[in-house]
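Exam revision sheet. Question 4 asks you to relate a sequence to its structure. Input first:
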Amino acid sequence: MMKWYSEVGLTPAAYWTLAWEQAAQSDSRVSSDAEEESYWQQHAPVYDERNPLAPYTAELMGSVIASLRADDELIEVGPGTGGFTQLLAPHVGKLTVVEPSAAMYAILARNWEQSGLAQAVPEAIRTKWEEASGLTCDVLFSANAFYRIRDMKESLAQMSHAAGRRVYLVQSIGVPFAHPLRAMHGGKQLERSRAQVICDILQEMAISHQMDTFAVQRKSGAVHNVALISWDT
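Answer key, structure tokens:
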């Protein structure tokens, strides 16, 4: 895998950042917090009616849940409307979410009240992961929340530092559920899946990790792969 980067003259981390910078030129949501929040103010209320992922990940989440302990403190980065949060909460002692969007957290809280879960609505740290500091937990979890991160290498290092035992990242693969990272470089259009580039950056950082893929059938009936990337800290 690393040979590909040598041939194009980029490191994995540099490729991620280049793709982010070029995406930001055509999509204001990538770089503008205000544009991102405006989008979710409109779309958060109907997010779970369209094609949510969490309800269809029993096998994938089963492997995550099996590793959790009743006294664990877990941080979830970018929980959105809380689909994965509801799956995780019954298996840990404390769950905190890092969620910058007021619109998404409002739907998470509404869904939580309707779920009948015994636990209180998770505390929200209202900031982007890149701007969070001093957070610690036993396990860190995040699903499909990486598209606005410019410096993925630093964010992964921050995740490893925060988690005392293990990190789990979920990343959908394949359009329309997850567009690959694309970048023009050296006169060529480059393209790699986000999941693969995350793994490549971890390899660049000399972090031993594993990526397991699960075929998931969504509400629409469409089947695609979802990656579970994890490592011990």
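Marking note for examiners. The mean pLDDT is 96.
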